[in-house]
Amino acid sequence: MDSIKYYDENAIEFFNNTAYVDMGETYDRFLKYLKRGDHILDAGCGSGRDTKYFIEKGFKVTAIDASEEMVKLSSNFTGHQTIKMDFNEIDFENEFDAIWACASILHVPKNEIKDILFKFAKALNDNGILFASFKYGEGEQFRNGRLFNYYNEDSLTKTLNEIGIYDILEIWKSSDVRKERENEIWISVILKEKKM
């Protein structure tokens, strides 16, 4: 995936832009479905910001990232070894109470997103929780060395209904929390794996 090359080449700049951003409101929405000590997969952990927060709040965290450079930076930042793994390599089974995919699977091509969401479902325990966020809009775009997929409420709901393995608990729009990026809109979703 070309996006990995971007993160390898721009790791320090990306780390500096994201490691100290306040995600408090989104954490609160996600963590209300979990209990202290639950096991979270931070899927595409980037700087390690969220892994660090979850560990400090008493959760067990497995962090993965496909970029070698981000793996080094996040491991150093969190004091917790990040595993180098891309989404296609995920092969966990009934291992996590929740998956946190913050601004990560938005780099997965739309024709592969269902496969990744199935892998996530397999990795989750029964009734596991999944958080994911995407750029708001429609289609796909290769921009500044990275692929972005875009969804709105209708297209994201349609995709999830077609997969049929998650219940949508929450879906919402928000502005980017980084300074000077407030005009960028995101769509986020919290899902619960259906009991099959």
From TrEMBL:
<dbReference type="GO" id="GO:0032259">
    <property type="term" value="P:methylation"/>
</dbReference>
<keyword id="KW-0830">Ubiquinone</keyword>
<dbReference type="InterPro" id="IPR041698">
    <property type="entry name" value="Methyltransf_25"/>
</dbReference>
<protein>
    <submittedName>
        <fullName>Ubiquinone biosynthesis O-methyltransferase</fullName>
        <ecNumber>2.1.1.222</ecNumber>
    </submittedName>
</protein>
<dbReference type="GO" id="GO:0102208">
    <property type="term" value="F:2-polyprenyl-6-hydroxyphenol methylase activity"/>
</dbReference>
<dbReference type="InterPro" id="IPR029063">
    <property type="entry name" value="SAM-dependent_MTases_sf"/>
</dbReference>
<keyword id="KW-0489">Methyltransferase</keyword>
<keyword id="KW-0808">Transferase</keyword>
<feature type="domain" description="Methyltransferase">
    <location>
        <begin position="40"/>
        <end position="128"/>
    </location>
</feature>
<dbReference type="Pfam" id="PF13649">
    <property type="entry name" value="Methyltransf_25"/>
</dbReference>
